[in-house]
Amino acid sequence: MFPYISLPDRHRTIIYTAPYSMVKIGLFSDTHGYADAQLPDLFADCHEVWHAGDIGPGSVLEPFLEKWVVRAVYGNIDAHETRLQYPEDQRFEIDGLKVWMTHIVGPAGKYTSRIRKGLETFRPGLLVCGHSHILKVMPVPSFGLLHMNPGAAGRHGFHRIRTALRFEIEAGRVQNLEVIELGLRGRSAQ
C-alpha cells in the first residue's frame, strides 16, 4: 500500500520523494461520475493515479484509494462535497519534476491570468489540466513546461473517444508516455 497524501491547505506545495527510482503515473480526467471498469487494470503497474477534475458524483476514485497514491483536483462541475475532499490546485514535486495540476488553465500557452501568475511563481515543468475534453500533450517553450491534458474518460461531453494517459517520471523528465483509448464516449467497456 502506498501513502495517501492529504492536503489540509488547498494551495500547499508538497515535495514528495517517491520510494522508487522512477514513478509511473496513470492520469485521467472529466469522468463526470462514470468509473470505467478498465482503468484499475490499465493502471495496475502505476505507483500513482491522478485525476485532473470534473470527478462527478459517485465513487469514481474509490477503486484506486487502497492501492495507489491518488492525487486529484476538483473541476467546475464538482459538488461541494468533492470540493471539500479535493483542492482546486495540487502543486508538488516528484523526482526533480515540479508539477501543477488544476482543472481549467485556458489554451496551451495562452493561459488564464490566474494560471500565468501561478506559473511565474511556482515554475512547474509539467502542467496537468482537464476541462476541454481534448487530449493534448505539448511542450510550451515560452513557459518552459510540458502541457498535459488526458482528454475525457467519462461519457458526458462532445469528445468521440474516451481517453487517459500513462507515463513515467524519472530524473525530472516525463518519459514513456502512452495514450489509452477507452472506447467510444457513449459505450461502456466490454
Briefly characterize the structure.
With about 190 residues, the chain is mainly beta.
CATH architecture: 4-Layer Sandwich
CATH superfamily, please?
Metallo-dependent phosphatases
Q: Write down how many β-strands occur, each being a DSSP E stretch of 2 or more residues.
A: 11
CATH topology: Purple Acid Phosphatase, chain A, domain 2
Structural class: mainly beta
Strand order of the largest sheet: 1-5-6-7-9-8
Number of domains: 1
Portion of residues in helices?
Answer: 10-25%
Q: Determine the mean pLDDT.
A: 88
How many angstroms does the end-to-end distance come to? 29 Å
State the low-pLDDT regions, or none. 1-16
Radius of gyration from the alpha-carbon trace, in angstroms? 15 Å
N-to-C SSE series? EEHEEHEEHEEEEE
